[in-house]
Design goal:
alpha/beta; UDP-n-acetylglucosamine1-carboxyvinyl-transferase, Chain; 2 domains; four-stranded mixed β-sheet; 13 helices; 21 strands
């Protein structure tokens, strides 16, 4: 049966969160169209409001972007602050950003364990200058500093070192800074931001390519489909747009139609595949689940940083895909191989397969489309998807019926 639907995607939370920070630094009212309604963006917006009201304890829950962006922002704001979050957030690294800020004159102390939240921050004027930043664990460390730099009297000269992980997100930061009037130059691993304050401008937030990836997965796992995704452009600031190219190898054809992309299923040759997630770590759960559902052998590289996301995504996908007989073998810290079983199991409505979310929205959204291949599935905490895609279950019910939430 042909899977057919017309989908309005959520707005990009990555673009939304950067836009909110630029407006906060520029001290102008946001003039944004299509701002994300994801929990992550709501958390950041609420935190900025709390800071404006001089509330000294800022709790960013499980929002990693807010943790990184607000560490720099609070360092520049007069007052004494405590930046904290969930227990998982307290396990996610922030030391490279803290050390870089201290090098620029910021006053930050670890309230509990060194290298992690909570942070005690005493806001002080930062002049800017030259700073090295390690990109190995997260590009958000660099983005956090860059977003503040136009407001600093000396601007910023940033030297990037280490593995350049999630580089498209850094490119997004620079492009959005330029849109709002920042003077930014990049030469290889050196980025120079001159002291030129942001200017208030309107900005339209794009539809979210990370959310689109789950519809590409649905298309790949379908026998036939016509899925229209509205508001997407193949020339996007978002690195996850590479999913369109990757899914070609899995039989998903992308057709541009006005302001939409239409996905159809075409025959493809089954063969072992390789994917590198260094630039696009959020696509790992999607591609792992898709290859498992299509019973394709695959090699995944660039996965080291996936262990410090909302969950240990490498271990989470290994555990959950084993429930359908798929094996994920770690070759090294940065590489693994997926080996599918010749036959997938089948689950009935009265005895569904129970997947665990691992407190991670992307694990749930990647596993849900597998019901097209294995029948009925359920989740322990389906509501976790609100972190990035609040109406995911409503939308997916139009085309993937075999889940219980």
């Amino acid at each position: 049966m042909k899977k057919k639907c017309d989908i309005e995607l959520p707005a990009s939370k990555s673009e939304s969160n950067r836009a909110l920070m630029i407006a906060a630094y520029g001290a102008f009212a946001p003039d944004f169209q299509n701002l994300s309604d994801s929990n992550d963006t709501l958390v950041l917006a609420n935190a900025l409001h709390e800071i404006e009201q001089n509330n000294s304890v800022i709790d960013i829950a499980d929002c990693g972007t807010a943790a990184r962006f607000l560490t720099t922002f609070l360092s520049c704001q007069s007052g004494s602050w405590l930046l904290t979050g969930t227990e998982r957030m307290k396990q996610r690294p922030i030391k490279p950003l803290v050390e870089a800020l201290k090098g620029l004159g910021a006053y930050i102390q670890y309230a509990e364990k060194e290298g992690f939240l909570p942070l005690k921050i005493k806001g002080t004027p930062i002049s800017g200058g030259t700073v090295p930043i390690d990109m190995s664990q997260s590009s958000q460390f660099a983005s956090s500093l860059l977003l503040a730099a136009p407001m600093w009297p000396q601007g910023l000269e940033m030297k990037l070192f280490g593995e350049l992980s999630s580089l498209p997100y850094l490119d997004m930061t620079l492009a959005m800074m330029r849109h709002f009037g920042a003077d930014v130059e990049q030469n290889g691993r050196t980025i120079i931001v001159k002291p030129k304050p942001y200017q208030s401008k309107s900005f339209k937030i794009s539809s979210d390519w990370s959310a689109a990836s789950y519809w590409y997965e649905i298309a790949a796992l379908s026998e036939a489909c016509e899925i229209r995704l509205r508001g997407l452009s193949l020339t996007s600031l978002q690195g996850d747009a590479v999913i369109a190219e990757w899914m070609k190898t899995l039989g998903v054809n992308t057709i541009k139609d006005g302001d939409s992309l239409v996905l159809t299923k075409v025959p493809f040759e089954k063969q072992p595949l390789s994917f590198d997630f260094s630039a696009t770590p959020d696509l790992f759960p999607t591609m792992a689940a898709t290859c498992a559902g299509l019973q394709l052998e695959a090699r995944f590289t660039g996965i080291a940083n996936l262990r410090v996301k909302e969950s240990d995504r490498v271990e989470a996908m290994k555990i959950e895909l084993e429930k359908i007989g798929t094996k994920l073998f770690c070759v090294s810290e940065n590489e693994m191989v997926l080996k599918p079983m010749p036959n997938l199991p089948s689950f009935l409505k009265y005895n569904p397969l129970r997947f665990l979310a691992h407190a991670d929205h992307r694990i749930v959204m990647a596993l849900a489309p597998l019901s097209l291949k294995i029948g009925h599935v359920t989740f322990d905490t389906p509501e976790i998807v609100a972190k990035s895609y609040p109406d995911f279950w409503v939308k997916i019910a139009k085309i993937v019926p075999n889940f219980q939430v």
